[in-house]
Design brief:
Elements lengths: L6 H9 L1 H15 L6 H14 L3 H13 L4 H10 L1 H4 L1 H19 L1
Helix pairs in contact: 1-2, 3-4, 3-5, 4-7, 5-7
Length: 107
């Protein structure tokens, strides 16, 4: 399991494995429910996480995006796109979380 997962999430998965598995299956079903490719879906999920101000989801999305080969500047662009929809403070928080993950990957 991903070493970056928060302890509360790991504990949830251990205590409620049936719910965790159902959630995993729901994620797979939603990814396959339409014509968007995985790369586009990953960028959209990052934007949604930024708009929701979900630090954990933003960081997880960034790690997964980098693993997919998505360029860091594209991730930063997603944060900038949030300025007019989610607001400047939300976009900057998202950008900060993106930069934290990028910094952890580079040194």
């Amino acid at each position: 399991m991903d070493g970056h997962l928060p302890e509360i999430y790991r504990a949830f998965r251990e205590r409620f494995p049936g719910i965790a598995e159902a959630n995993d299956a729901l994620g797979q079903a939603t990814r396959g429910a339409g014509p968007l490719d995985e790369r586009t879906g990953r960028l959209i999920r990052l934007g949604i996480a930024i708009g929701a101000r979900s630090e954990g989801a933003v960081k997880a999305s960034v790690r997964k995006a980098l693993d997919q080969g998505i360029d860091p500047d594209e991730l930063r662009h997603v944060a900038m796109l949030a300025v007019t929809t989610a607001g400047f403070p939300t976009a900057i928080a998202g950008l900060d979380w993106i930069e934290e993950v990028l910094a952890s990957r580079t040194g």
